[in-house]
Write a structure and sequence with these properties.
Strand content: 25-35%
Number of helices: 9
Strand order of the largest sheet: 1-2-6-7-10-13-14-15-17
Bound molecules: flavin-adenine dinucleotide, magnesium ion
Structural class: alpha+beta
Largest sheet: 9 strands, mixed
Length: 346
Amino acid sequence: MKKKTFQLAAQVFVIIFVFLLSACNPQKEMVTDSTYMLGTYLQLSLWTEDKAEGMAVIQECFQRIRQIEQKMSVNIEDSEVNEINRHAGKEYVAVSDDTMAVIRKGFAYAELTDGAFDPAIGRLVKLWGIGTERERVPKPEEIQEALKYVDYRGIKFQDENKVKLDIDGMQLDLGGIAKGYAADAVTKIIREKGIKHAIINLGGNVVALGKKADGAPWKIGIQDPFEPTGTHMGVIEVADQTVVTSGNYERYFIRDGKRYHHIIDPKTGYPSENGVISATIITDSSIDADALSTSVYVLGLEKGMNLIESMEGVECIIITEEKKVFLSSGLKGRLKITNDGFQIVD
Ligand code: FAD
Ligand code: MG
């Protein structure tokens, strides 16, 4: 278990490589700390004149993430999500505003993507067990059985804060969206403290708050899906935006030469395979970027790109198996390729 945890931490550490060094400023110093939560490596870096205060802000952020994890993790027995799952097919469960906001957002993206993103994916995630000691290729009949319980339309809402799963055996899993919510929550705390420059990296869910302390935009590296974690294939400059990637290299296992990764197509029950191996979203809100990176990955190049083009203020980078790179219209000319093996398709 420890080994697995370490591997994951190492993997996620540099999914998106952030160039922090050139952010120096005579008055402001960088304060940074990291920890392991949400099944991944988290790192917060902020620039402040008061280092002690900066460190206290980071600890407050970690506490807030812990609170979100307690409510939404399927790996914590008494989380609100597990409470909903235990009452599936039975009754409504009252949950906190945090959990409700994430479920409602997940539901909205399920509707928008016609179920390519589905927060009721829990049965399939458990069955495959990818990233856990239980990981295995399920039998086709097991997949067919699990698929009966995967359908967001069975998520029912009542009043402000009550939710229920329609069928006994249905299970929510917010792994594709809750990290984005946590990133937004942390951004809010840091902003409220008056801090103007920060990099929040929750296992590849990056928020670049403000600009660098020297006034230049942040440079965010986009992971090369074919290379060990930390190797980037391109760099993009952003300010006050979030950059979130879903890729087939983040959590996977290989059986009989075939790679099985953790983003599951709810229509087939198998890891999504449509030629896309990485989808990066750049926008203002990290919860939207998180849901959309998973959505675009499952929708594939054409439908995924159409979806992004239909949305205001949202951009994406899609990388295919053939190392072709597709950019949404607002990103043209903004991604600097650093590995010639990749080719931008206009
Ligand atoms: P994303 O593309 O953002 O999401 C992929 C994840 O979303 C999958 O792992 C699955 O959980 C879910 N998913 C798969 N297919 C779909 C789909 N079609 N639609 C919607 N969702 C889908 N990991 C651990 O190893 N141990 C832990 O204790 C642990 N606790 C966690 C607690 C919380 C609150 C959260 C948010 C995550 C936790 N994780 C844990 C990590 C989690 O299991 C996911 O692997 C992780 O969130 C994936 O994020 P990603 O950015 O790599 O991929
Ligand atoms: Mg996601």
